[in-house]
Amino acid sequence: MLQKHNTEAHGIKYKNGLHCTARILQTEGVKGLYRGATSSFVGVAFESSLLFGIYSQTKQSLQGGGQSDVPRPQVIIPSAAYGGAIISFVLCPSELVKCRMQIQGTDSLVPKFSRYSSPLDCALQTMKNEGVTGIFRGGFTTLLRESIGSAVFFSVYDGVAFWSAVLPLDVAKTIIQTAPDKSSTRNPFAVLNSIYSRAGLKGCYTGFGPTIVRAFPANAAAIVTWELAMKMLGDKS
Predict the structure, then answer these.
(1) Which of residues 151 and 71 earns the better pLDDT score?
(2) Which of 77, 94, 208, 226 is 20 to 30 A distant from 6 in Cα terms?
């Protein structure tokens, strides 16, 4: 919500994450906070297992199979970037559906009769109106975010570092995926340049606070689960 509305030239402006939450509770109730959650849960669950799996296999291949060797940056970075690039093809459609479901509840310009009834309806309507490629709108931006972000994350094991590095790309992705005009630019750098000209660097990091709060438990759970799985499978690296 913050990324969509606070970066527009006109429209709703939220003071911060708490103000945004309060506004959603006031207008939509508790269910509004979970709008688009279904597609997000499915995408994240599949994405996490795929990312860690690809990263682990690619890392072992680049190390020549030596599990006892300590991974080097020249192994970690390309392995993580490759994994991030692959999972972007899974994340892009699920995040497009999530973002479109989320904004329709607060966008007064969207009449109720034309709103999506479910994530599946959103996906089907998107493909009907924009073609199959429409469901992958923002794909290049998602690929950049995931490949760069994953390289940073696996290098330092820090979700804060991940989002500090790529949040501007996430902001651009949200704008691209929720643009009402399907002919609008899909160039993330053009989008960020427009935001920067209106709101400066702060605008490019819209939603940073709530994202970091979410990142702590999410990334901690992912790392612990992965480490335990590797130990159970006998990977000592």
Answers:
(1) 151
(2) 94
Residues 65-105 pLDDT 10s: 555 556 688 899 999 999 999 999 989 999 999 888 888 76
Residue 28 and residue 105 in contact, taking contact as beta carbons nearer than 8 Å: yes
Mean pLDDT of the chain: 81
Whether the model clears a pTM of 0.70, i.e. scores above it, the answer is: yes
The three state secondary structure string of the chain is CHHHHCCCCCCCCCCCHHHHHHHHHHHHCHHHHCCCHHHHHHHHHHHHHHHHHHHHHHHHHHCCCCCCCCCCHHHHHHHHHHHHHHHHHHHHHHHHHHHHHHHHCCCCCCCHHHCCCCHHHHHHHHHHHHCHHHHHCCHHHHHHHHHHHHHHHHHHCCHHHHHHHHHHHHHHHHHHHHCCCCCCCCCHHHHHHHHHHHHHHHHHCCCHHHHHHHHHHHHHHHHHHHHHHHHHCCCCC
Q: Residue range 125-154: average pLDDT?
A: 94
User: What gap in Å lies between CA 211 and CA 25, rounded to an integer?
Assistant: 19
Q: Domain spans of the chain?
A: 2-232
